[in-house]
Amino acid sequence: MSDYIYTNPLDEGYKQFKLTKKQHNELFQYRQIQWRDKYEYYYNENHIIMHKFVNLPSKILITILFPIFLLIYGIGNFKELIEEMKRGYNQKKYGSFTGDDIYKGSTTYNKVMEIINKKEGIK
Fold first, then answer.
1. Structural domain containing residue 81
2. Which of the four pLDDT bands, split at 50, 70 and 90, describes residue 63?
3. What global pTM score does this model have?
4. Which own/partner pairs from 87-92 qualify as long-range (CB within 8 Å, at least 24 positions apart)?
């Protein structure tokens, strides 16, 4: 196990915001939201952070399929399967998610900030 420790961006002074699936897919051509994805978005005046997690329906599906995985991979790999399940359920704890950064000055940053400002009523 690694010594990874999740740092909540809210504790670092970031603000959380939401994008619709349509907004996300228009902004991020190569990071389209799939049925199994859940995103969290954070921003400050210079930086946007995106974290991509596995959503609840995917976790439920993996749980239901666990006995089949156990048959396919064998009882000898039981510990590894359990570790993978723990990583899937506790993604922040184990660092089992992907993150992207967008910095001030990029066109994507400006587009996202426009969306945030519209939601907050700022011109």
1. 9-120
2. very high
3. 0.87
4. 88/54, 88/59, 88/62, 89/59, 91/53, 91/54, 92/6
